[in-house]
Amino acid sequence: MEATMRCHLLHSPLSILSSSSSSSSSTFSSSSSSRTPIISASSSFPMATTQDEAGRRKFLDFPFVSAPHKNLMLDLVSTLENRFDSQLLPCTLPPDVQHYQSQSGTAQASLQIRSGQSNSPVDFVLGSWVHSELPTGGSLDITSLSAYLNLSNDSPNFLIELIRSSPTMLVLILDLPPRKDLVLWPDDLKTFYEDTHLDKPRQDLEKIPEVQPYYSSSLYVRTVSSPTAIMVRIETPEEERMEDIIRNHLDPISKQVLGVWLDHCACAKRDVGEAERAHLKKRDGLIRGKTIEIDLGSSFPRLFGTEVANRVLDTMREYFTV
């Protein structure tokens, strides 16, 4: 599992696990929720075309995950978008980037990117889901939501990924990745991680018997993660127990962490000087570059084929350039 988890822990917003990573996967065919989405396909934002609305509907459908999993993702997307309201532009990605699949149809994905207005601290918000059938007969399902701040705010970014390779196995990555060295800027460690008690959600989650910490063997991965990052592997004897953990534990903890990010990071008033902006630009650029070139650049072609992968990655580079 280690080699295939590295892309997720680099805080990539649309990481992919290769089919060789799940030797013990079983068939996963959870039905989507019948719950009415808490945000509409077009939301309250003007100038979205019919194609854009169709792409948004596909994203919000989260068709291959269970009801508690889907509801969690919908609530997070809704909370984040409602907080920034008109400060986010509608997604205008090409239709064949908003939803795409491999030539064989064994892998498909949905992608939404919404840029921030000039008056917003948010550079862009990225949401996605990926579904891939595995040679073992099972499937891999990844849902993710990430938000990147621009150079006017030096606070951490936000990331959540739920990676499910069977009805009874799930990996959760939930973090506020720092954008500055916390040794050189100890006030940031106190402001964003200590004073907000961000380590408590991780501690609470790890009290559940089925939850085990996930430790990456990559020293680089550990370097770019925050000290309060939640990286856990959850394995249950029955699917019903997994859904119970998602509903009663992952759901409130994820919303708590997003709330901390919204109140203390994204919406905080920060005085960022020119020297700090230059540092942020360099560091943000390096992290985003690794996401595209190393992680997604190697996994996308294997999953979707070269033509589709190049089309999607070329479009994503436009947003990931600092």
From TrEMBL:
EC id: 1.3.7.12
Location of the protein in the cell: Plastid, Chloroplast
GO CC field: chloroplast
InterPro entries tied to this protein: RCC_reductase
Region (Disordered): 16-40
Chemical reaction(s) catalysed: primary fluorescent chlorophyll catabolite + 2 oxidized [2Fe-2S]-[ferredoxin] = red chlorophyll catabolite + 2 reduced [2Fe-2S]-[ferredoxin] + 3 H(+)
Alphabetical keyword list: Chlorophyll catabolism, Chloroplast, Oxidoreductase, Plastid, Transit peptide
Gene3D superfamilies: 3.40.1500.20
GO BP terms, alphabetized: chlorophyll catabolic process
Transmembrane segments: none
UniProt keyword Ligase, yes or no: no
Enzymatic class: oxidoreductase
Domain of life from the UniProt record: Eukaryota
GO molecular function: red chlorophyll catabolite reductase activity
Pathway: Porphyrin-containing compound metabolism; chlorophyll degradation
Annotated PANTHER family: RED CHLOROPHYLL CATABOLITE REDUCTASE, CHLOROPLASTIC (PTHR34685)
Protein name listed in UniProt: red chlorophyll catabolite reductase
